[in-house]
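lol forgot to send this yesterday, sorry. struct tokens for the thing we talked abt
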């Protein structure tokens, strides 16, 4: 087992893996990329998504993002349980980044000197260099810029992968997010007909492994490195203490519930960087579902529950037809109800009795 000192020297452990891939090849098309237009995008915290075009305007471009790594204590349930979180841009999950197929995604990743650990980013959407992980490893007080071409459309996970046991520890401490690469001509249904969305929400599902003390209470630690040994022991049991959406049980309920109106079409992007999950919208459906997250494949239709593989992201499109509160859950109902994987949509509009009505109110059983 790694010691705390070895955990804090994660960059040393990763250096051997980086060296193993050999020298970085020269970029053949740098001059071509230099001539492309550039767009700077300001990221927003999930479940919201930065403004973007659903259909690309013009040719490929370089889309520039900046993301800061933040290590910080985070409360993950109503009981005040603390996670010593590692985050991209301060949120769990990290922000959703949207580009179009053929664009270049250029990210400046910053690891402030107030942090204690080395971090990087592995883009499942990228080709080469451990998904960018081999080229983005930075110690506290450093920053790095990575560019990759978005060659495949779909939704893709990104996560921290600094090497060895650091990889799962960083991921289950909050360091994951997603990229959405839209087809240049937008989303299509199973017949190739264009479909659009009025709203988009990004839900990142996380499994957390919080150590307990001798009395069974969740422990707190002074810094992000102090919990390493204890957390690894819990992780190896493969039984999470919390399974939550967007970093905290109840983070997308009540006043923070996602909003929509009857007749609006909503795109839900759902990622899980570590475990399989099965999203379900109670009282609704997936009109069109890219279960594997790849827009080049025809979407499935009318799904009640869909499957998101660990280490991937999927997308579902639904047009709300009734007002009210819709629960959106991981349909392992133990994880939804007991461990926290529940969110809500609140939908405004006029009720349609043709779709559902109470024919007769509850009353005593007739004798």
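and heres what i got for the seq, position by position
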């Amino acid at each position: 087992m790694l010691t705390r000192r070895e955990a804090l020297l994660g960059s040393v452990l990763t250096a051997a893996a980086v060296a193993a891939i050999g020298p970085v090849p020269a970029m053949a098309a740098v001059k071509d990329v230099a001539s492309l237009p550039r767009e700077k995008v300001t990221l927003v915290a999930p479940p919201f998504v930065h403004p973007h075009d659903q259909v690309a305007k013009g040719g490929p471009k370089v889309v520039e993002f900046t993301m800061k790594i933040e290590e910080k204590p985070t409360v993950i349930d109503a009981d005040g349980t603390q996670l010593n979180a590692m985050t991209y841009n301060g949120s769990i999950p990290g922000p959703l980044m949207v580009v179009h197929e053929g664009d270049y995604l250029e990210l400046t990743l910053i690891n402030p000197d107030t942090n204690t650990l080395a971090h990087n980013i592995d883009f499942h959407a990228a080709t080469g260099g451990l998904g960018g992980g081999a080229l983005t490893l930075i110690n506290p007080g450093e920053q790095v810029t990575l560019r990759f071409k978005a060659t495949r459309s779909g939704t893709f996970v990104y996560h921290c992968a600094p090497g060895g046991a650091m990889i799962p520890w960083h991921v289950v401490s909050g360091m994951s997010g997603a990229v959405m690469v839209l087809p240049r001509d937008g989303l299509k249904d199973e017949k190739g007909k264009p479909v659009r969305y009025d709203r988009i929400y990004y839900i990142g599902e996380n499994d957390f492994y919080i150590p307990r003390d001798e009395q069974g209470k969740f422990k707190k630690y002074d810094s992000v490195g102090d919990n390493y040994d204890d957390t690894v022991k819990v992780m190896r049991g493969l039984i999470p203490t919390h399974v939550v959406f967007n970093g905290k049980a109840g983070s997308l309920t009540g006043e923070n519930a996602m909003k929509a109106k009857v007749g609006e079409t909503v795109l839900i992007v759902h990622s899980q960087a570590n475990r399989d999950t099965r999203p379900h919208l109670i009282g609704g459906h997936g009109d069109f579902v890219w279960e594997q997250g790849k827009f080049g494949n025809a979407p499935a239709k009318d799904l009640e529950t869909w499957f998101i593989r660990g280490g991937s992201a999927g997308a579902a499109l639904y047009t709300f037809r009734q007002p009210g509160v819709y629960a959106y859950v991981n349909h392992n109902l133990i994880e939804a109800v007991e461990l926290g994987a529940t969110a809500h949509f609140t939908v405004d509009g006029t009720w349609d009795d043709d779709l559902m009505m109470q024919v007769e109110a509850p009353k005593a059983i007739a004798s």
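The longest strand covers residues 62-75. anyway ping me if u want another try
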